Amino acid sequence: MAEKNKMKIEKISVVDQVVDEIKQTIISDKYKAGDKLPSETEMAQLYGVNRLSVRMAFQKLNTLGVIETKVGDGSYVRDFSMYPIINEIVDFYNGEDRLEEIQQMRRLLELECVALAMKLATDDEKDELKRCLDRYHKIRDLMLSSESESLFEQTIDADLEFHSQIVKMSHNRLYEEIYYMVQKLIRSHISTLMKKRRIWMRQLGNELRDGHDYIYEEICNGNISAAQKLIDEMLDIIPPQGQPEQ
Which uninterrupted H or E stretch holds 70? Predict the structure, then answer.
């Protein structure tokens, strides 16, 4: 009697097998970004399949962004990134009802990157973080004394640049790639926080010391517990110190 819960064996199409084989040659560095792949005829002979199967495999890899086929020239390995794919769907996650989720994601990622930056960042990278901080202050001060929407957007960009530099200083390429992929969401979150804080930042003026200053200092000093509190304040998880009551 046959077993009732027998595992179903899935049949893999010839096209998918060719796709997997080509991906493995790229993953194993046999072909690198910019390298030209063998022709459809050569691939068909190599894998023992017909040219149509290879052509369909190439089309699938083109759609995934793994290769780029140039008419009359051939197919080339691309410098693959998930960013174009994620960027197409990220707007579905962008909205008031998603702010808390974005906040939680930022806290998880940025706190870990701060901890790694404390251990691994070079002096040159810390110098670059200071330059990011100075650029942020310069444009932020202009924004606070103006109603210019352009200056507001530039302030958001400078804020994002500061945080992106910290992620780079983690020396974790996967964290950096993830941060890059979701930067549209992060930028939107920064904008939301900045709009809320712009009023009391103007009220306090020079009496307020920006949280970015403290984070820079704690990275240089290696104080992770202080950095955790600062991240929570900056992401609006707890009220920033010195913020007027609403």
Answer: strand 67-70
| pTM, rounded to two decimals | 0.68
Q: Phi/psi zone of residue 242: left (φ > 0), alpha (ψ -120 to 50 degrees), beta?
A: left
User: Residues near 119 by Cβ (< 8 Å), separated by ≥ 6?
Assistant: 222
List domains and CATH numbers for the chain: 14-77 (1.10.10.10), 85-234 (1.20.120.530)
Q: At what angle do helices 173-181 and 149-169 cross, to 10 degrees?
A: 160
Q: Is 185 exposed, middle or buried (0-12, 13-18, 19+ CB in 10 A)?
A: buried
- What's the distance, Cα to Cα, between the start and end of the chain in Å? 72
Please state, as a whole number, how many other Cβ atoms lie within 10 Å of the Cβ of residue 4.
5
Buried b / exposed e over 28-54, threshold 16 CB at 10 Å, is: eeebeeeeebbebeebbeebebeeebb
**Do the beta carbons of residue 200 and residue 171 sit within 8 Å?**
no
How do residues 113-150 score in pLDDT, each as one tens digit? Answer: 999 999 999 999 999 999 999 999 999 999 998 889 99
The pLDDT of residue 246 is above 50: no
Q: What is the pLDDT of residues 203-223, one digit of tens each?
A: 776 556 678 999 999 999 988
Residue with tokens 């549209």: 184
Q: How far is CA 92 from CA 41, 95, 177, 198, in A?
A: 42, 8, 20, 27
